[in-house]
Write a structure and sequence with these properties.
Layout (H helix, E strand, L loop, with lengths): L1 H16 L2 H11 L43 H15 L8 E3 L2 E6 L2 E4 L6 E2 L29 H16 L7 H6 L5 H6 L1 E6 L2 E6 L3 H15 L3 H9 E5 L20 E6 L9 H7 L16 H9 L2 E3 L10 E4 L1 H6 L9
Antiparallel strand pairs: 1-2, 2-3, 3-4, 5-6, 7-8, 8-10, 9-10
Bound molecules: zinc ion (ZN).
Zinc ion (ZN) binds next to β8.
Amino acid sequence: MKKRLFFIALLLAILVTEHAFCRGKSQNKDSPRNAGRERAEYSLAGREQGSSEPESEKIENEALMPAAALEKTEMDRAEQVMKALAKAYPDRLGPAEIRNGDWAVPIRGDWYYYADGKLLPEELREKARDYDGQPFYNYPAELPAWKAPEPEEEERFRGMAERRRRNPSRRSQHFFDALWRAHNKEEAWERIKSIRFLGHTVMVHYAILEELALVEERILSESKTNSRIRAWIASLSTLDGWNWRGIADTQSRSFHAYGAALDILPKNYGRSNTYWLWTAQSTPEWWTVPYEKRLHPPDEVVKAFEAYGFIWGGKWLFYDTMHFEFRPEILILNEILLTDMR
Ligand SMILES: [Zn+2]
């Protein structure tokens, strides 16, 4: 009951503050940029904010603003998520179907269930309560216009950071370990290839080589007529891909552990306004740093990554603006991704 009241309060807060995302999203739908794009068939409505998950489960990668959608049932949400996953990884997942009362997808013959957003194998379905949900968060097509947080929002952000510290998220790794075929460091290492990307060496999972080549091709092509992109490429110092580790301050595995995430850092970037945890060392109110004071690759670069299935950590509330991660399912669920990435 307490949780239900919390979400109702949250919903009211969103309605009252008229979050900029709503405006950005509706503008985007009509924008020329989207003309000719085939719309993804999955709606943003019904994402997990309306579910009974504790707040601590979704603060990790919560996007800039929570979606308000209490009207969809959990089964609808399960269908959306599992179909988005099947569509996002067509070479690795079979089609989603209802199985034993829940939506599920197969990975090489093993079935994984939605399980209240936990993505669990058959044998762990009964232990769903032991895990936090996977973050299928709201991800805006465009960064909303910067608006300093209201005092109530600041209070909420402070509370989220505090809960994150006190109660680190614990997600089941089974689904993504199986998806990337990387259950431990040795197995992950076997999947890693070293490539050149924009003139720098980086180690990534073999399954995203083609996507990264296409991202690079698009960035280089646009750089011919865009001096900001040329300057950004020239400013790059290091690219960090594969790194067997968890997400800082959590018990959850980072997508760097699979080689499915990439940190792109320019020279002389200054640590302070790149990653919220670093910012917090000097500015406890890390959320007050406006977008223009955060490291920000050119928008065209962000869009090039998004066009081939990568999300940008600069759109997370807990920002990580050097970070790109292969999560086509997030882009599909938010109606951003082209149906056919290639
Ligand atoms: Zn990263």
